[in-house]
Write a structure and sequence with these properties.
alpha+beta; single chain; four-stranded antiparallel beta sheet; 147 residues; two-stranded antiparallel ribbon
Length: 147
């Protein structure tokens, strides 16, 4: 894509064919010459195909949050939300840390606590670090745009 072009990426539950052309199993996109055209195309597409989600990106691609998002009335949004990453990550990390501490305090005599801690802590850390990276990236992007 060239500077000034925008991609409309389609995801979600897609129809079998669009305008007689078979729809690929993977996400697919359409390139528009300008932001206004990309937004208009995304809105029209999700009205015509209400199970799809259309996201507009610039030439950097999916580096950050989409510039625009339109979802059809029956779109399936099965993504992990920021709220889930924070609560589940914090919960798993907290419980894992408590169980690990209990195992250490007991002198490693209650093996089940250590086993659970070893499985809960990494998942909690990954969720929390993912959320932290998304927040830091969004702040950097916001600072870059405000200059």
């Amino acid at each position: 894509m060239a500077e000034g072009e925008f991609a409309v990426l389609f995801t979600g539950d897609r129809p079998e064919a669009i305008e007689g052309e078979p729809v690929p199993d993977a996400p697919f996109c359409v390139v528009a010459a300008g932001m206004a055209g990309a937004e208009r195309f995304a809105r029209e597409a999700v009205v015509q195909y209400p199970t799809m989600i259309a996201r507009v990106y610039d030439r950097r691609g999916m580096v950050g949050a989409p510039l625009f998002e339109a979802a059809g009335a029956r779109a399936n949004r099965s993504e992990i939300s920021a709220r889930f990453r924070r609560w589940a990550g914090g919960g798993l990390f907290g419980v894992g840390a408590a169980l690990g501490l209990a195992e250490i305090i007991s002198g490693f005599t209650i093996n089940w606590a250590g086993m659970l801690a070893a499985r809960l802590l990494p998942v909690g850390v990954v969720l929390l670090l993912t959320e932290a990276a998304i927040v830091v990236g969004a702040r950097r992007e916001q600072k870059r745009k405000s200059r």
